[in-house]
Design brief:
Number of strands of chain A: 12
Oligomer: homodimer
Order of helices and strands of chain A: HHHHEHEHEHEEHEHEHEHEHEHEE
Structural class of chain A: alpha/beta
Largest interface: A-B, 46 and 47 residues
Distance between the termini of chain A: 69 Å
Chain lengths: 330, 330
Amino acid sequence: MATIGAVAKQAGVSIASVSRVVNGTTARAETERRVRAAIIDLGYQPNSAARALKVRKSEQICLSFDDLGNPAYVSMTRGVGHVLSSSHYRLILSSAFSSVEEIVKHLETMGRGFADGLIISPIYSDPRIASLISRLRIPVVLVGTLPEGLDVDNVHVDSASGIEMAVEHLVETGRTNIALVNGPVTTNPGRRRKAAFERALIARGLTLTDESIIQADAFSPEAGYAAISNLKDLKKFDAVIGGNDQLAAGVMKFCFEKNIGIPSDIALIGIDNIDLASLLRPTLTSIDLRAEERGEIAANLMLDRLANPDRPSKQITVEPKLVIRESTAS
Amino acid sequence: MATIGAVAKQAGVSIASVSRVVNGTTARAETERRVRAAIIDLGYQPNSAARALKVRKSEQICLSFDDLGNPAYVSMTRGVGHVLSSSHYRLILSSAFSSVEEIVKHLETMGRGFADGLIISPIYSDPRIASLISRLRIPVVLVGTLPEGLDVDNVHVDSASGIEMAVEHLVETGRTNIALVNGPVTTNPGRRRKAAFERALIARGLTLTDESIIQADAFSPEAGYAAISNLKDLKKFDAVIGGNDQLAAGVMKFCFEKNIGIPSDIALIGIDNIDLASLLRPTLTSIDLRAEERGEIAANLMLDRLANPDRPSKQITVEPKLVIRESTAS
DNA sequence: CTCCTAACTGTAAACGATTACAGTTTGAAA
DNA sequence: TTTCAAACTGTAATCGTTTACAGTTAGGAG
């Protein structure tokens, strides 16, 4: 494996000159020609560890989230990737955490100069996570609910207002008994959507009982199906909001099997507006949380912060958007 | 930012001793105690670039593929992640390539000691890709069709036999006029599925005309919908095979809108058996290409190769599995 | 108490790049 | 031809680790 020294020798110049040619600083035409020839000759590739050690930069930005299986995160990744591809930073992903421990382990390796910036969207809210993030010496952009007292760039979607829109829309289309099939309350989205749902129902004087919130143990179709199956009497509701589209898809599957008509017997709304929403039958009304856009914003915040390390941190809020489809027709 | 030297000073030992404690070599109990105390005191984290430079290892394995939007790759990632999480290697992902140029750029950075191993699943077959891979000095596991003359570890699913199964199943359930809504033929899967489809039809003496293969320009529901919309006379077919489940979902959507019954008028089969298949209505019969399992196999091949660099390369073939659902009922 | 081995520890040389700084060339102007 | 500034080039220090090697220490055996 050729090093810069080998190239220098082959070209008959100093390693400083090779370095300058590689990094685009000025050099005499003849020098440059010889260096380039030697580089091709030897198949030289600069060693990135050595470079990173010297310049204290890895040219990498890490995007991490908890659940690659959720298409909303895939959209977010697309947004981030799109913005970063026109910068000189490489995007690397780190995902599929199964536990808070893994997140912690991951955050620790972030402290080792492994990336120049971290865009993170944690769904679990554990005090350790906030504390580790605050100790990180690299810029962090947090996508999602900002933990108390953490001062980093943040992009956040007003999911409470999304729930609000969903309830509003259901009421407008004549529904009054609304249930929420919620994701785990150990997660931020789970907790916040639950709270927002309760507020929205109370604000309108709608019935809210213990049974109005049905807890699923994951944000997946299977979990949605299982959760709704456990419900004694689905018929007493005329509308269901899924904690996300996948949960809603599980509910829809159950209703189909039990011959419960959507939207005739029960209206159904999902959250995230992933591709699946328009493929289901009936097509699924959904609250679009603009994941791709949030990814773009996060990436831009990161680039801005990297270029300008001392600016005060920014918090950006994105407004959700109601996408009406068949599952809530009157 | 604390370095090993600062820790050594604080603990009153040499940097060699600190290094030994950190890396788990033997040390006197008292030494170890003092070093650990200093580490916690200073919040020391070893610099990974310096370590990588010295030991010529990054402890990272890179997984790259072209389309994160395809849930099959997400499954594959899960398989890889699962295996790697019990090793000391970190998994990093690199995806969302929009062009062969980007893949090439990416492969070049792989040559810089950025990862210790590369698991790659390229869908485009470009001679440059094969040539770059063969020049890489790190172990490579290729998931998918192995380019001519490239001698690396490989895991490959016999998709021809999958198509075979699909046709067989359709014939058994009484269909004889079968169309394929294929993904782009600029991709390996697109090309191979087309060829396998033609062979299967010819082998059975079934009608195969120019119209039997409908080319979509991506492996997405929208592309499937668009492709099938362009077809003059869908009615002359009694079965459609989608190049993947997402293409099939697009076809299903179209059929629903045009009041074409599935499976009554047309039987439909997808490929990949992603979650979506069981959420659609009717549920979608699909050829399971065992993406998660292929990911596991690939990761194990990689670990094995890393432990044993000189063994001859292995090629492993996975058999697809037909999952029968409603969309092909007689 | 002396000796000896085993266990530990420290010194210093790498790893492969970047970059001040000082020295050398170049070429136009006088 | 000489002069001088601008442009280029080379030397050597440095980034933060690991590790061979040599030196030290500990503690049991004699």
